[in-house]
Amino acid sequence: MKRLFASALVRDGAVAGAANLLANGGSFVYYSAAAHALGPATGGLFLALIAAALLISVFANIAGVALTPDVARLHAANDRGGVRVLAGRAALGWLASGIALIVVALALTGPGESLFHLDDPVLLIETGAVVAANALLFLTRAFVQAIARFDVYAWSNVVETILKAIAAGAIVAFPSLRLTIGSLAAVLALSALFTAWPVFAYVRRARPVVPAFAQRSGVRSLIAAFSALAVMTFADGIIARHMLAPFDAGLYNAAALAGRALMSALGFLPLVILSKLAHDREESERGDRFFYAAVGACCLGAIAIFALFPTFILIAVGGRAYVAGAPLVALYGIAASALSMTNVVVSYRISRGARTIGRVLIVIAAAELAAMLVYHPSAAALVDVLIAGHTLALVGSCLTGARPQRSRRAIDAQTGARSAGSSTT
């Protein structure tokens, strides 16, 4: 066990995980400050708009994750020209997507206002700016990780956290929904530019060379799985804003914010440390047992915290104006715990060779989304659907078959037998 944790706490995983946790903490402090300053109705609208922005921009993160292996391979071969080509394609994709998003936002201003019960179209434009800035930040961080600039990745998260702390102070002093969303867009844009500069410096003098892409298995499953998880994470907040009264939607989104904070905290330790077991084929079976035991313990512990201290959690997130939503927090903790552990298990199972897990989660996410749209008499009913859907996703991700992993000893034994056989013929 000592060797296991010693090998797990490698520099890249520790730096990336700690920096990510810091940035997520800064984000939730910012969102909490907005919820305190704006109150349940307006604060709930803000959280719903941010949920929509994150749901759209998270696909840039998925694209960055899919590009990372190719960029890392080119970096290892010192092929800066190939990295430059991939960075250019990513930038063009981001720019084209941003233009398309602006066109769609302008075309759907009326339906968008109806969906979120808005009377200010400027808020939709600011939300689009949040999407664009966050997508650029996701892509640039994927590239700095792929070229092994974990120092830049860490400082990027520190800069984002500091800027969000400053913006949170401005929101508390001058509570305004326009200021809240606009300041978030500015923070994300500045953080993205800070992160992009080292990537630009890395490739600017390189001669562009179109790289040969490696054939990798599992990328489609990864994209499908994390797309489904993104929908399950953020769609309910948007639906709540559209289906429920503004005050009730505000209480619901405060509970959802607490749940997402829990997901970030819970996902850190298993994802950074325990997923390293996926690469230890020699201790595959024992590693599996230890991994799932840790996942179960984290999940049960989180559920207990939300069940015992719902009022305290809600006051910390949004203030005493949200106390009426305490029963929602206790229930949402179950759903958030299950989805958090699903994120961890999906990463682990894909790294172990699971190839059908993405399709399973797509089906579950679609069924959950349909159930929320059909069965929405109250906020509690939405949470009930989430509990059922997220629990099913966790069970499905655990049970979905993976390709069998043989230990190194078995592989060496088979190789030795072949060598012996060839020497006697």
Describe the structure.
The protein is an all-alpha fold and 425 residues long. The chain folds into two domains: 11-206, no CATH class; 217-406, no CATH class. α2 packs across α8, α8 packs antiparallel against α9 and α8 packs parallel to α13 (357-374). The longest helix is centred in the first third of the chain and has 66 residues, at 11-76. It contains 15 helices and no strands.
List the helices and strands and how they pair.
Layout: H1 2-8, H2 11-76, H3 80-107, H4 109-116, H5 121-146, H6 150-173, H7 177-203, H8 219-243, H9 246-272, H10 284-308, H11 310-318, H12 326-351, H13 357-374, H14 379-399, H15 408-424
Helix pairs in contact: 2-3, 2-5, 2-6, 2-8, 2-9, 3-5, 3-7, 5-7, 6-7, 8-9, 8-12, 8-13, 9-11, 9-12, 10-12, 11-12, 12-14, 13-14
Membrane topology: Multi-pass membrane protein
Protein name: Polysaccharide biosynthesis protein
Keywords: Cell membrane, Membrane, Transmembrane, Transmembrane helix
Largest sheet: none
Could you tell me the number of beta strands?
Answer: 0
Provide the helix percentage.
Answer: over 70%
Distance between the termini: 44 Å
List unreliable stretches of 5+ residues.
Answer: 1-10, 403-425
Shape verdict: globular
- Following the backbone from N to C, one meets helices and strands in this order, namely HHHHHHHHHHHHHHH
Number of domains: 2
Strand content: under 5%
Structural class: mainly alpha
Number of helices: 15
Compute the gyration radius: what is it? Answer: 23 Å
Average pLDDT over all residues: 78
